[in-house]
Amino acid sequence: MLFQHLRAILLGPVTVTIIIPVLIVTTVGTAAVDLGPAPGSLTLVAGSLLVAAGVAMLAWTISLFARSGAGTLSPQDPPRTLVIRGPYRHVRHPMFSGVLGIVLGEAIAARSLTLLAWFALFALFVAVMVSRVEEPRLARRFGNDYARYRDNVPRWLPRLLSWHASRPSGTD
């Protein structure tokens, strides 16, 4: 199982957050925005905090997939049970949110327009893929449990109070 997790992490998040940004910067450049020394320090700190938050979210959600879902983030070995714990009680796709946070944080820290363009392209890809592929697949796999979850937990903007499947819909 460890090998499956590592393979999925390397093929997914590592490719999107490290390999592709490095390829972009080394081939195209950063197209850095010169904001002067003080704003540059602020963007480095803000971007680094966003990267750290994204990494923490990614680690948390991967751990939940392994422990609660008995699976990995890979479509070839997905969770066997619907994961509705931790951040999944607030938003349906916190793993993607974590990865998007990392990519956006890199663009902000580097003050890079090319990395910002990569963020926008990847965010568009995720939005389309989630609505057209990921969520229909979850609906087929988990049926009514997923439908109830989908009806109570937003896709992207987190709800303030956590949702609990054991409670009637609409109560917190």
From TrEMBL:
Topology of the protein relative to the lipid bilayer: Multi-pass membrane protein
Keywords linked to the UniProt accession: Membrane, Transmembrane, Transmembrane helix
Superkingdom per UniProt: Bacteria
Keyword Lyase in annotation: no
Subcellular locations according to the entry: Endomembrane system
InterPro entries reported in the protein's UniProt record: Metal_cation-efflux_comp, Phopholipid_MeTrfase
Keyword match Membrane: yes
Ranges that cross the membrane: 9-33, 45-70, 91-109, 115-133
Protein name: Isoprenylcysteine carboxylmethyltransferase family protein
Organism of provenance: Pseudonocardia kongjuensis
